[in-house]
Design a protein that fits this description.
Elements (H helix, E strand, L loop, with lengths): L2 H19 L2 H10 L4 E2 H8 L3 H13 L3 E4 L2 E4 L1 H22 L1 H4 L9 H4 L9 E4 L7 H10 L4 E6 L5 H11 L3 E6 L1 H11 L1 H9 L3 E5 L6 E5 L4 E5 L10 E5 L2 H15 L3 E3 L1 H5 L1
Parallel strand pairs: 5-6, 6-7
Antiparallel strand pairs: 1-3, 2-3, 4-10, 5-8, 7-11, 8-9, 9-10
Helix pairs in contact: 10-11
Length: 277
């Protein structure tokens, strides 16, 4: 769909968008009723509304076929349920953008495919780990602690940091499953730094799978059974090691698994035969 089609469709529904989103009372009622049917007193108490404000908005919503009144109880119509679902998605997405503005602003987001950017609401229950003047490696330290407790590690990295070799070796020692997707440059650097013998030992582990990706990757992330950790490159092209977005939320972890699958589909298995070439 081109921009003209999009704008034409917007012109046709902008009044509906305005009706639903510009009144905080109407928005709150719609979201509240999405959780179940309620009478007037329940809505007033739950949302902290005066009777006049609540009744005025309820009548407006009823006139637009968004809610239905049966006896003394209000519920969403089918259209109202659709509005509620899409409104909640929109609000969570905006919340995620605003709350974690530091990691989005002046950072490269093209490493995240569009279908997952559309699901950015899945990251709404996250937090930022940032470097401080007295702890400049705080993102790394926090990440290391999390990985040391993980049993299933999936990671993609177009950057090299030597301590991570030991981090993954220790994970394998405790019988964790590790899947890494690395760029050719990072594979070459890891081989040079760790040595063929050590890399051979790692590749020989039944719990370790290594993949090479030719695509220019501009995102650094790890997803495990317990957390997602996401880092981005600055718009100047350098990886920003001073800030990570981290989440323990189930939706965020699922989002991270989708992101890993996206890159895994574009990667090739790297094994001992490749190492000898």
């Amino acid at each position: 769909m081109d921009i003209i089609d999009t704008l034409n469709r917007y012109e046709g529904i902008k009044g509906d968008i305005k009706f639903v989103t510009t009144s905080s009372v109407r928005t709150k009622i719609i979201l509240s009723l999405n959780k179940g049917n309620k009478d007037l007193n329940t809505l007033k108490n739950e949302l902290g509304l005066e009777s006049s404000a609540a009744l005025h908005s309820l009548k407006k919503l009823e006139s637009q076929n968004i809610i239905i009144k049966k006896k003394n109880e209000y519920s969403l119509s089918t259209i109202g349920k659709l509005y509620a679902i899409k409104s909640e998605n929109l609000f969570k997405s905006f919340y995620t953008i605003k709350k974690y503005e530091k990691i989005w602003l002046n950072h490269w987001i093209d490493g995240i495919p569009k279908n997952l950017l559309k699901e950015i609401k899945c990251l709404n229950n996250s937090f930022l780990v940032e470097s401080t003047p007295i702890d400049i490696i705080k993102p790394h330290s926090h990440y290391t602690k999390l990985v040391n407790k993980a049993n299933e590690i999936k990671s993609i990295s177009p950057i090299f940091y030597y301590p991570y070799i030991d981090l993954y070796k220790n994970a394998l020692k405790r019988d964790a499953d590790v899947k890494l997707i690395l760029s050719p440059l990072i594979l070459a650097k890891m081989t040079e730094t760790a040595g063929v013998e050590i890399l051979n030992q790692i590749l020989s582990s039944k719990n370790f799978k290594l993949y090479k990706i030719e695509k220019d990757v501009k995102v650094v992330f790890t997803v495990t059974e317990n957390f997602l950790s996401l880092g981005l490159f600055s718009t100047e092209g350098l990886y920003d090691a001073t800030i990570n977005l981290v989440s323990y939320d189930v939706d965020a972890i699922e989002w991270g698994n989708k992101l890993f699958s996206y890159y895994l589909d574009k990667a090739q298995k790297f094994d001992l035969d490749n190492l000898s070439k």
